[in-house]
Specification:
By secondary structure, this protein is an all-alpha fold. It has helices at residues 3-41, 44-67, 72-103, 111-138, 141-170, 175-196. Helix 2 (44-67) packs antiparallel against helix 5 (141-170). The chain is elongated and about 60 Å long.
Protein backbone atom coordinates (compact mmCIF):
# COMPACT_ATOMS: atom_id res chain seq x y z
CA UNK A 1 0.00 0.00 0.00
CA UNK A 2 1.42 3.36 -1.02
CA UNK A 3 1.40 6.46 1.14
CA UNK A 4 -1.35 7.92 -1.07
CA UNK A 5 -3.46 4.77 -0.63
CA UNK A 6 -2.93 4.92 3.12
CA UNK A 7 -4.04 8.59 3.26
CA UNK A 8 -7.13 7.78 1.18
CA UNK A 9 -7.97 4.83 3.46
CA UNK A 10 -7.56 6.95 6.59
CA UNK A 11 -9.88 9.58 5.08
CA UNK A 12 -12.49 6.91 4.34
CA UNK A 13 -12.14 5.48 7.86
CA UNK A 14 -12.70 8.94 9.36
CA UNK A 15 -15.80 9.31 7.20
CA UNK A 16 -17.03 5.89 8.36
CA UNK A 17 -16.54 6.85 12.01
CA UNK A 18 -18.30 10.21 11.43
CA UNK A 19 -21.31 8.48 9.83
CA UNK A 20 -21.59 6.03 12.73
CA UNK A 21 -21.22 8.71 15.42
CA UNK A 22 -23.89 10.80 13.66
CA UNK A 23 -26.18 7.75 13.62
CA UNK A 24 -25.54 7.13 17.31
CA UNK A 25 -26.24 10.74 18.27
CA UNK A 26 -29.45 10.87 16.24
CA UNK A 27 -30.80 7.64 17.71
CA UNK A 28 -29.95 8.56 21.29
CA UNK A 29 -31.87 11.82 20.84
CA UNK A 30 -34.60 9.87 19.05
CA UNK A 31 -35.21 7.57 22.00
CA UNK A 32 -36.03 10.59 24.17
CA UNK A 33 -38.25 12.28 21.56
CA UNK A 34 -40.05 9.04 20.72
CA UNK A 35 -40.67 8.23 24.38
CA UNK A 36 -42.35 11.62 24.87
CA UNK A 37 -44.38 11.27 21.65
CA UNK A 38 -45.37 7.65 22.34
CA UNK A 39 -46.60 8.39 25.87
CA UNK A 40 -48.56 11.44 24.75
CA UNK A 41 -50.20 9.62 21.82
CA UNK A 42 -50.37 6.18 23.46
CA UNK A 43 -48.79 4.93 20.27
CA UNK A 44 -47.42 1.40 20.10
CA UNK A 45 -45.84 2.21 16.72
CA UNK A 46 -43.87 5.15 18.11
CA UNK A 47 -42.79 3.13 21.16
CA UNK A 48 -41.71 0.33 18.86
CA UNK A 49 -39.78 2.72 16.68
CA UNK A 50 -37.93 3.77 19.83
CA UNK A 51 -36.91 0.12 20.33
CA UNK A 52 -35.71 0.04 16.73
CA UNK A 53 -33.50 3.02 17.58
CA UNK A 54 -31.89 0.89 20.32
CA UNK A 55 -31.05 -1.79 17.74
CA UNK A 56 -29.55 0.87 15.48
CA UNK A 57 -27.44 2.14 18.40
CA UNK A 58 -26.17 -1.40 18.96
CA UNK A 59 -25.35 -1.88 15.26
CA UNK A 60 -23.48 1.45 15.10
CA UNK A 61 -21.49 0.52 18.20
CA UNK A 62 -20.50 -2.78 16.55
CA UNK A 63 -19.28 -0.97 13.42
CA UNK A 64 -17.25 1.54 15.46
CA UNK A 65 -15.64 -1.42 17.26
CA UNK A 66 -14.92 -3.18 13.94
CA UNK A 67 -13.49 -0.07 12.25
CA UNK A 68 -11.14 0.37 15.22
CA UNK A 69 -9.34 -2.88 14.42
CA UNK A 70 -8.72 -5.23 11.56
CA UNK A 71 -8.90 -8.87 10.59
CA UNK A 72 -11.33 -11.28 8.98
CA UNK A 73 -12.36 -12.80 12.33
CA UNK A 74 -13.26 -9.36 13.68
CA UNK A 75 -15.35 -8.66 10.56
CA UNK A 76 -17.11 -12.04 10.85
CA UNK A 77 -17.97 -11.43 14.50
CA UNK A 78 -19.23 -7.93 13.72
CA UNK A 79 -21.42 -9.22 10.87
CA UNK A 80 -22.92 -11.86 13.16
CA UNK A 81 -23.74 -9.23 15.78
CA UNK A 82 -25.45 -7.07 13.15
CA UNK A 83 -27.30 -10.17 11.92
CA UNK A 84 -28.61 -10.73 15.44
CA UNK A 85 -29.79 -7.10 15.44
CA UNK A 86 -31.69 -7.71 12.18
CA UNK A 87 -33.23 -10.88 13.63
CA UNK A 88 -34.37 -9.04 16.77
CA UNK A 89 -35.83 -6.27 14.60
CA UNK A 90 -37.79 -8.75 12.47
CA UNK A 91 -39.18 -10.54 15.55
CA UNK A 92 -40.13 -7.21 17.12
CA UNK A 93 -41.88 -5.97 13.96
CA UNK A 94 -43.73 -9.26 13.50
CA UNK A 95 -44.96 -9.35 17.10
CA UNK A 96 -45.81 -5.64 17.25
CA UNK A 97 -47.66 -5.56 13.92
CA UNK A 98 -49.64 -8.71 14.73
CA UNK A 99 -50.53 -7.47 18.21
CA UNK A 100 -51.66 -4.02 17.01
CA UNK A 101 -53.83 -5.57 14.28
CA UNK A 102 -55.33 -8.26 16.53
CA UNK A 103 -56.33 -5.92 19.36
CA UNK A 104 -57.33 -3.05 17.07
CA UNK A 105 -55.22 -0.62 19.08
CA UNK A 106 -55.95 2.95 18.01
CA UNK A 107 -53.40 5.58 18.99
CA UNK A 108 -54.12 9.31 19.34
CA UNK A 109 -52.82 11.77 16.78
CA UNK A 110 -49.19 12.86 17.21
CA UNK A 111 -47.84 15.93 15.46
CA UNK A 112 -44.51 15.44 17.25
CA UNK A 113 -44.38 11.84 16.04
CA UNK A 114 -45.18 12.88 12.46
CA UNK A 115 -42.50 15.59 12.44
CA UNK A 116 -39.83 13.39 14.05
CA UNK A 117 -40.41 10.35 11.81
CA UNK A 118 -40.40 12.55 8.67
CA UNK A 119 -37.06 14.11 9.59
CA UNK A 120 -35.66 10.76 10.76
CA UNK A 121 -36.53 9.08 7.45
CA UNK A 122 -34.60 11.76 5.53
CA UNK A 123 -31.62 11.60 7.91
CA UNK A 124 -31.44 7.79 7.87
CA UNK A 125 -31.66 7.56 4.06
CA UNK A 126 -28.81 10.09 3.80
CA UNK A 127 -26.67 8.22 6.35
CA UNK A 128 -27.42 4.86 4.70
CA UNK A 129 -26.26 6.16 1.31
CA UNK A 130 -23.06 7.52 2.87
CA UNK A 131 -22.35 4.20 4.60
CA UNK A 132 -22.97 2.24 1.38
CA UNK A 133 -20.52 4.42 -0.57
CA UNK A 134 -17.90 4.48 2.17
CA UNK A 135 -18.22 0.76 2.88
CA UNK A 136 -17.83 -0.01 -0.83
CA UNK A 137 -14.77 2.26 -1.11
CA UNK A 138 -13.19 0.58 1.94
CA UNK A 139 -14.36 -2.87 0.77
CA UNK A 140 -15.76 -3.26 4.28
CA UNK A 141 -18.75 -5.67 4.45
CA UNK A 142 -19.54 -4.66 8.04
CA UNK A 143 -20.03 -0.97 7.20
CA UNK A 144 -22.03 -1.87 4.08
CA UNK A 145 -24.25 -4.26 6.08
CA UNK A 146 -24.83 -1.75 8.86
CA UNK A 147 -25.75 0.75 6.15
CA UNK A 148 -28.62 -1.60 5.33
CA UNK A 149 -29.66 -1.52 9.01
CA UNK A 150 -29.76 2.28 8.70
CA UNK A 151 -31.77 1.96 5.47
CA UNK A 152 -34.30 -0.26 7.25
CA UNK A 153 -34.44 2.33 10.05
CA UNK A 154 -35.31 4.93 7.40
CA UNK A 155 -37.91 2.65 5.81
CA UNK A 156 -39.42 1.96 9.23
CA UNK A 157 -39.54 5.71 9.94
CA UNK A 158 -41.33 6.20 6.62
CA UNK A 159 -43.77 3.39 7.40
CA UNK A 160 -44.53 4.78 10.86
CA UNK A 161 -44.92 8.24 9.29
CA UNK A 162 -47.43 6.94 6.72
CA UNK A 163 -49.34 5.15 9.48
CA UNK A 164 -49.43 8.27 11.68
CA UNK A 165 -50.55 10.49 8.78
CA UNK A 166 -53.24 8.06 7.62
CA UNK A 167 -54.45 7.69 11.20
CA UNK A 168 -54.59 11.47 11.63
CA UNK A 169 -56.25 12.23 8.28
CA UNK A 170 -58.44 9.21 7.62
CA UNK A 171 -58.55 7.20 10.85
CA UNK A 172 -56.71 4.29 9.17
CA UNK A 173 -55.07 2.97 12.33
CA UNK A 174 -54.16 -0.36 10.64
CA UNK A 175 -51.88 1.18 7.96
CA UNK A 176 -48.76 1.22 10.15
CA UNK A 177 -48.83 -2.44 11.29
CA UNK A 178 -49.40 -3.57 7.68
CA UNK A 179 -46.30 -1.65 6.57
CA UNK A 180 -44.42 -3.42 9.38
CA UNK A 181 -44.89 -6.79 7.65
CA UNK A 182 -43.07 -5.53 4.55
CA UNK A 183 -40.10 -4.58 6.74
CA UNK A 184 -40.18 -8.02 8.41
CA UNK A 185 -39.57 -9.59 5.00
CA UNK A 186 -36.66 -7.23 4.29
CA UNK A 187 -35.07 -7.80 7.70
CA UNK A 188 -35.32 -11.61 7.37
CA UNK A 189 -33.72 -11.40 3.93
CA UNK A 190 -30.76 -9.52 5.46
CA UNK A 191 -30.41 -12.12 8.24
CA UNK A 192 -30.21 -14.88 5.62
CA UNK A 193 -27.61 -12.95 3.62
CA UNK A 194 -25.47 -12.26 6.69
CA UNK A 195 -25.49 -15.83 8.04
CA UNK A 196 -25.67 -17.84 4.80
CA UNK A 197 -24.49 -15.49 2.01
CA UNK A 198 -21.02 -14.90 0.63
CA UNK A 199 -19.07 -11.82 1.81
Amino acid sequence: MTATDDVARQTLLRRGFALEYATLAWNVLGIVVLAVAAIAARSVALAGFGLDSLIEIGASTVVIWELSGSGVDRQRRALRLIGVGFALLSVYLLVQSTWVLSVGFRPHHSLLGIAWTAITAAVMFTLAAGKARTGAALDNPVLKTEGRVTLIDGLLAAAVLVGLVLNSLAGWWWADPLAGYVLVYYAIREVKEIFFGKH
